[in-house]
Design goal:
single chain; Jelly Rolls; about 10% helix; about 35% strand; globular
């Protein structure tokens, strides 16, 4: 995975779908066990998205809002996108290596769907 900039820092994400213009989206990176466990728990929302890495599945137990979840392979290609209500447990995806979480409805608006490639850029 190409992440430019310090681990755990704010970064940006671009979703490159074949038929849509790329979107620049603020991204937080959770790349430690502690940061992945915390995820979006206790928050009222998220500005942009959260990348959990490495990760192959998520849960929304204890969350206050529904989220879109994109499962990514090693090359940051989207394997699946699901919307999860609070209190749910998502099954791990065998080929997934990373997961992106955003507020419900955001991924469709950004053009993130199966087959899209995600590009992560550093904050600078």
């Amino acid at each position: 995975m190409e992440v430019i900039g310090p681990a755990g820092s704010a970064a940006g994400i671009t979703a490159e779908a074949a038929s849509e213009a790329p979107w620049e989206i603020p991204l937080e990176i959770a790349d430690s066990a502690r940061a992945r466990r915390r995820g979006l728990l206790g928050r009222a929302g998220v500005a942009g998205a959260l990348l959990l890495t490495p990760a192959s599945g998520v849960h929304t137990v204890g969350m206050r809002f529904a989220v879109d979840v994109a499962y990514l392979d090693r090359e940051l290609r989207v394997l699946a996108v699901r919307t999860m209500r609070p209190g749910r447990i998502g099954l791990p995806r065998p080929r997934a290596r990373h997961v992106i979480e955003a507020e419900a409805g955001a991924m469709a608006g950004w053009g993130v769907r199966r087959g899209a490639r995600i590009v992560v850029r550093g904050a600078g």
